[in-house]
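Subject: two folds for Thursday's group meeting

Dear M.,

Sorry for the delay on this. The cluster queue was jammed most of the week, so I only got both jobs back this morning. I'm pasting them in the order they finished. Each block is the input sequence followed by the predicted structure tokens. Could you check whether the formatting survives your parser before we put anything on slides? The first protein is the one we discussed after the seminar.
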Amino acid sequence: MLASSVLFFILPILLSPLLSSGVQFPFNVSYNVDCGGSTNSVDQFNRTWLSDRFYTGGSTGLVSEPLHFHPLQEKTLRFFPLSSGKKNCYIVDLPIGRYYVRTFTVYDNYDGKSHSPSFDLSVEGTLVFSWRSPWPEDISQHGAYSDLFVYVNDGEADVCFYGIATDSPVIGSLEIVQIDASSYDSATIGTNHMLVNYGRFSCGSDQWGPGFTNDTDFFGRSWQSDVEFRAKNSNIKHLSTSKTIVNTSQSPNYFPMRLYQSAVTVTGNGALEYELQVDAKLDYLLWFHFAEIDASVNAAGKRVFDVVINGNNVTRIDVYKRVGGFAADNWHYVVKNLSDTVLTVKLAPFVGAPILSGLENYALVPADLSTVPDQVMAMRALKESLRVPDRMGWNGDPCAPVNWDAWEGVTCHPNKEETALVISQIDLGNQGLKGFVSDQIGHLSNLVSLNLSSNFLEGTLPSGLGQKSLARLDLSNNQLSGSIPESLASSSLQLVLLNDNLLEGRVPDELFSVGVHGGSIDLSGNKALCGVSPLPSCPLFWDHGSLSTGGKVAIGLACSFIFCVLLLVIYICCIRRGNNDYDFGLPQDLITSCKEKQVSETEVLNAS
């Protein structure tokens, strides 16, 4: 595929799979994109970053204080002004599977306007992140990482930006890593939910992971310190070890050993408490990490504690009993029916003090409906053939996310089964379009109304333009040529405006029934249309700008007649002539022979 639009990024060649040396990980698809970067680069942790310089959608920028940012990919950014359209996308070809997606977003007054932008970000047609101005000062100046897990089932990942009002969306970097499809209990949660990170922390340590330290996490996850999530009244004791922790870096989640080599517990009889910010409208997946790294706890029953979530005691944990000492253990729980924006997690002591190595909190975001794949391809073909201008933002999925407006001039609705979105209307009248109507329009099987009037379209009307659903068709005031396809006669048209074009040939009789049955049809101002009154009658043997069936039959009969006449002439002139020569040649010979005989007899008589 080629990147033929300044807004539509396709990266199958630029983003070749990257392999991490020495990593025993069964997946090798890993893309690190330096958005706005001018060249490929390698960071201090030996990760290769690929420039998106070959794709000119939007514009590139540089943070105002680059010395505050150590990695090169955090200093550059790409932004999408309104002139690029409301919707802009990176579209990356990928094998079908599950992926970890991480973005770095920064403003740092790159444009000198001191106004952090408002915009939304979607992945695979589902709204996942919303940025609203003004951003928190720390995030505006230093940026923030956001990540999620998503299942890609159509062979390409769409990461799209939608500007709010006149603001320009921005992005600093984009990372996509293929992961185990069975990770994070996907068999139970399903592939139709995204896991959006609302907090992932490691207890008893500073932030670490890809982009922050040289520690390995096969999925690309980074781990924050638990300090900012911890309740203020917890009396914390830090634990750490350099010993090997077993059961780490294993399928399907590949949690790194580093996560289990530190932990926190509490002094006295207190509980270990955390407060997590959430959106009350969603359900959340909590993933707990434990490892008994205190050598004094060497038997079951020495450390037992309850897990209390939002005041509900949901389980009792004895880490040593479950996995033994210096071994990784994890447990997860789905929280539903929230009534507050703060989710509380408390590990309450039963025997001894509770212990925690880490905790992940993911919002279970249902995947939005997406457009039927065939119709997505048809709309992309139309974008190319109609030469839709950049300002209209025809990028990504034509209809999704449903929270956003569809492509400009496009109307969508769910199909009958409510399993996907379909195109029902295209209104691009008077937009200065200069291309042609692609044959792929026939795949828009739910199209009810098509208005491409008052443009500069050329070419012929595609035969696929005859969907049963089509009720309104306005292609007036263009430069369309050729004949009107018979397929239009089989549609459910109630309005047909094809006036002021260069059309010619016979108009299907059934098309005139539109006017007879209360609809409206206008074919005036064309080159040479003919058919039912008020149009002039068509020549006997001419139809749709070419020979009619009757004309072809007549020509065939005429040719057959001429061929027969030629055969007859050949017969008379050649065969019959040869026969006559034979019939009249013999008597002539006899006459000559007789004369010669008479002469001989006379000569004999005279001699005697």
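Second protein, same layout:
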Amino acid sequence: MASRGLHDADPLDPSVLLLQDRHRSHFVETDQLQEVLRPRQQMRAFLSLWRMDPRIRPYVIRAGFYGIYRLGHISIDWPLITCLVERWRPETHTFHVPVGEMTITLQDVAIILGLRIDGPAVTGTCMLNVPQLCGELLGVTPPADAVRGLTISIRWLCQQLSTPGPDADGVALERSARGFLLALIGCFLFPDKKGVHVHLCFLPLLRDLTQTSTYSWGGAVLAHTYRELCRASLDHRCGISGCISLIQLWSWERLHVGRPDFGRSAPYPAPPFAHALHDDDVDAVVAEGMDDGLPAEPVVQPEPEAEAEPEPALPLGCRWRVPLTRVLNPSGVLLLYRDQLDAQTSDQVLWQPYVGEVVEQLPDICLADQEIWRTMSPLICFDTVEWHRPERVLRQFGLHQEIPPDCSYDQHLHRVDARGRHQRDWATYHSPYIALWETRSARVIHSPPSVGMMDFQDPYMQWYRRITRRFLTPRLHRDDMRFHTTADSMNVMIAAMVDIVDRSRFATAGEHR
């Protein structure tokens, strides 16, 4: 058996990680890439501009997005996101950490964000008549300077729809709710590169808000998140968009690296209004771009009214909307995060965090679609199609992990996006994948329950060590005045011990012949 040592940078078996030469980890190992990615988020700016009118609250609840609103803004730990992107593999849609593969699954999206994962795919046509569509569903027609292609300024939506009049009827309130939901979608779930515009392809899906709640928004968010992780992990990318909060909250729920501590006695926090949020420098800088050339008119907010309806149960991600402390776990240092992941052990991973008291207070939608949590199906969001690979992370479902089957990397599918394709009907273009999604219940992976921690010499771990790069931290000059990683020495020690065990087994086998 070939053992891995400190100088074995690339996989011994290159049959899985086909993009290693373009991957971020390759440039990290050669010390060519030390910059921290800059996640792009606008949720803080959105909440400061548009405090939800209590009268549209029932519409937001009906559409299934109230949990997203209550989750609100999460200050992003940029080095943590960068460290995770360095571990993300586009070939498998998983994070390759030292103890095996892990990924964000449909289960994580449902429980953390409270979005529906079952239902029709989020797709449709981009052949839109913008003035007609906005006039019908929003009640206002945007000026030319508020529209770019098929995207619309979020600030303009705030200025036009955030303050329905005191005598607004049901039609006006529903239009205001559509504008609020469209801006929420653009700021939190599917932000563009700058986070100041939102694509109007989502607006037709908000026509009937009761029908809106039936779509697989969780599957669409996961498809978009996978695509953004894939893009950020290749070719010296310096930024990342998508639902960054989902990535960070997933990491906090499952990994020890950069995880803050908080009071468990109050899992459901107060509403995430802007005045109670923590500052986030990158969001504050990018928020200035939300003006986007429009007049900087003050947004007048109505006085909050007493809410008669009881507060709905909130998704698990909302429990992180409390004051957090990092006294016991230092944060914000990329080199430290890399070293902690390089030195990771199985007992530092929460393979099944959603058990017991954690899930007792969750809304029904978080646990409603468990039968497809492990579906091996394409995830769809208009132009984006990405495969869900639960067969590679069965330990996250409490099941025994075998060596997974080969998964082909479809380079053409990764290249398909909406750029230059503004007049395309994506429901027709991706109809073969939509048909596969519609039969998602027929492709659920099964496996026996796992028992205890996986052994170092388990067949899966032996295979995994051959096909991956477990250690990313580059060797450093031993400068007395800088941080010294511990993973270097630990890796050498492990490689030496494995080599000793292998030699002893060979010698013992020779004596018995």
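Two things I noticed about the second structure. DSSP finds 21 helices and ten strands in the chain. The first helix runs from residue 24 to 29.

Cheers,
T.
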